[in-house]
Amino acid sequence: MALKVYADRMSQPSRAVILFCKVNGIDFEEILVDIFKNEQFSPEYKAINPMHQVPAIVDGRFKLSESHAILIYICCAFPGVASHWYPGDLIKRAKIHSVLDWHHANLRRGSAGLVFNTLLAQLDGHHSYPQVVNQAEGILLKSLSMLEKFWLKDGRFLVGGSQPSIADISLVCEIMQLELLSEKERDRILGPFKKVVQWIEDTKIATAPHFDEVHGVLFNAQKRFRERMKTKPELKAKL
Amino acid sequence: MALKVYADRMSQPSRAVILFCKVNGIDFEEILVDIFKNEQFSPEYKAINPMHQVPAIVDGRFKLSESHAILIYICCAFPGVASHWYPGDLIKRAKIHSVLDWHHANLRRGSAGLVFNTLLAQLDGHHSYPQVVNQAEGILLKSLSMLEKFWLKDGRFLVGGSQPSIADISLVCEIMQLELLSEKERDRILGPFKKVVQWIEDTKIATAPHFDEVHGVLFNAQKRFRERMKTKPELKAKL
Question: What family, per the record (chains A, B) (predicted)?
Answer without folding.
Answer: Belongs to the GST superfamily. Theta family.
